Amino acid sequence: MPLLVFQLRAVIRRVGLALVCVSLLAAGLVFRPFAPAAAQVAGLECWFVADNGSPHTSNDLLTYYIDGVGESFIDGGASPNDGTGTTLIEAMAGDPTTGIMYATNSGTFGTIDTVTGEFSAIGPTGYGDVDGLALDPFSREMYGVARLGGADRLFKIDVATGALIPGGIDGLDSVPINSDVVVGLSDNDDIGISPIDGQMYAVANNGGPDRLILVDKDTGNVTDVGQITGATDIEGFSFDPFGNLLGSSGSQDNLYQMNLNTGAATFL
Q1: Which tens digit of pLDDT belongs to each residue from 213-245?
Q2: Helix or strand or coil: residue 2?
């Protein structure tokens, strides 16, 4: 299928809510479980789900980006020109071992076909608004963040059924992420887990400046890293295989690398 290629800024402008950066090529080390066959070149590779507003659909749209090359809209299958067939995808996480791309459409957990761009539901999580997803590269457990009004809740997801795992967080169904207490910001728009040490990071916001925080995966307790400077409205997080944390902005139309020690964002 022919792929349309656009400049980075044009795609990011429609993006921002979901991000998976799957590979960097270095010294012959290749991570390509998600890459379309038509895009086998070196460079930073990221998947975005644009939150509607694409050239040909008002639905969410899967977009594949290669640094220095551009972007490809992935929209085919039985119903082309309908994007993912959804309008409420706000979180996604890729499994580099199986090549499966997971996402949540509102509170429904499912997969995105990286060839057709179509979302297929697996099942309800039990929450109505899931804003963050991350696969732990060590335990291979899927974590989700649910927005309930007040402190967000951290929970684990059964990828076979989409359902919350009862007692999955240290014997509890879910735990509050106490960013509202620690940094005064209750919303956590996405999470990422480092492939280097397993630490969970999140972006905390809620009308104030974004802050980069650490989240304890067993308790939900938060440690503040610092205000995210150089970028605003970070809504998508993803680690690449080498431990670099990347974030997408929903309002600044850009992709950034985050400093894990300070929260400073560097434009890419």
Answers
A1: 999 999 999 999 999 999 988 988 898 888 999
A2: coil
Select the CATH number that applies to the domain covering 5-267 from these four: 2.120.10, 2.70.70, 1.10.3470, 2.40.160: 2.120.10
Distance (Å, whole) CA 46 – CA 64: 6
Quick count: other Cβ atoms within 10 Å of Cβ 205?
Answer: 21
Please check the confidence at residue 32 and state whether its pLDDT lies above 50. Answer: no
The whole-model pTM stands at 0.86
**47-84: string of b/e by CB count within 10 Å (b at 16+)?**
bbbbbbebeebebbbbbbbbbebbbbbbbbeeeeebbb
Domain coordinates in residue numbering, the chain? 5-267
Distance CA 31, CA 46 (A): 12
